[in-house]
Amino acid sequence: MAAAQRIVIENGAIATVDADDTEYASGHVVLAGNRIESVGAGKAPEGLENVVRRIDASGHLVTPGLINTHHHFYQWITRGLATDHNLFDWLVALYPVWARIDEPMVRAAARGSLAMMARGGVTTAMDHHYVFPQGSGDLSGAIIGAARDMGVRFTLARGSMDRSEKDGGLPPDFAVETLDGALAATEDTVRRHHDSSFDAMTQVAVAPCSPFSVSTELMRDGAQLARRLGVRLHTHGSETVEEEKFCQELFGMGPTDYFESTGWLGEDVWMAHCVHMNDSDIAAFARTRTGVAHCPSSNARLAAGIARVPDMLAAGVPVGLGVDGTASNESGELHTELRNALLINRLGAHKEAALNARQALRLGTYGGAQVLGRAAETGSLEPGKLADLVLWKLDTLAHASIADPVTALVFGAAAPVTASFVDGRQIVEDGRLLTADEDAIARSTRDEAQRLARIAAQG
């Protein structure tokens, strides 16, 4: 790091989210190239060479960048539809629309989803994309390209479906892949795009959609493929009571037992939602270190229920936060999920003891890094980790009278992002993207949403 260009951030409150939850009322962070060089109380060390910028973080809280662990970018262009439906009815209403997506639509939707997250403090994003209509183009390439252009660290969970309406599933027949086609396309995506290096900007996971849209063969073979290629596994799990009933009727067992029977529990696996988990399910996840992407706003929007996050954390289950698709979380922001995770979990059995502000911040940072398999590289502010961090402005009307900055960030209104850095590169300044034209993205997403609506209406 001796010859690296340095950025010095000083005079801000710092929440490192390290193993000891170390915090500084006024401290410094020094970035050297794409790494964090030092973090500590007071001013930065004297005599630093190659300092190209100094940032006065007075009135700010500095945290690790937020990490999104579950999303469906393509849904950006179908927001505001089926707003009074449960999950299964919502899927039935929207699959015929989603089945008409193409590459320009997906590219625009990915840019919209990424832009909304990035300007709200997300530095690592993921997308679970599982709809690949025939002849729709290079959808994975479009999504990965959008993340690269936005400057956000990214995991593509290359999804798939092979159980359509004729097989008892929900998607239209023309919207699914064959078993062999899905496996081959997934392997090709991994080989073309996955980067296993420490500072990787793009990684790929194997991600069949869900037990009710995927055959047992695709689940089992997908797990074997992921482990042969050395990548992670992702799917939806235990989201609704209807899913529990479906698994019992079709497989003779609940979702967790079904996942275990197909090789889908393990420290290289994370599941989205996990709302309906009993004690045995939670114990199985803890024993195998299977991760969970908690999506509180989407779970509420679709009336799925309240996930037992306090019990999962107490048992040792890795838990991160997810936006989920913006057809079930129209705001598309992860920083609001810090607050929603805390508030919604207090409606559960643990009441006010469910989660506190620092636990919520950990879910959105280090917990997310654990779930994505990147806790050694990001998720906390520690020397040697990647320079992914956010400066939250807390000295305005919205937050200035709250003494504790972490409480202000989590309990208060959505805090403005003064600066966000990914890999040592600033991508947001004063709440605006530096890597993309937000107004142009808004226009393109509106145009593509209208085009999709016209095509879907024509049948």
UniProtKB/TrEMBL annotation:
Source organism phylogeny: Bacteria, Bacillati, Actinomycetota, Actinomycetes, Kitasatosporales
Keyword Hydrolase annotated: yes
Domain Amidohydrolase-related residue range list: 61-425
Protein name: 8-oxoguanine deaminase
Pfam families xrefs: Amidohydro_1
Membrane-traversing stretches: none
NCBIfam families: PRK08203.1
Protein EC: 3.5.4.32
Gene3D superfamilies: Metal-dependent hydrolases, Urease, subunit C, domain 1
Any GO MF annotation of the entry: 8-oxoguanine deaminase activity
Source organism of the structure: Streptomyces coeruleorubidus
Keyword check for Glycoprotein: no
Coiled-coil intervals: none
UniProt KW keywords: Hydrolase
Enzyme class: hydrolase
InterPro entries in UniProt: Amidohydro-rel, Metal-dep_hydrolase_composite, Metal_Hydrolase, MTA/SAH_deaminase
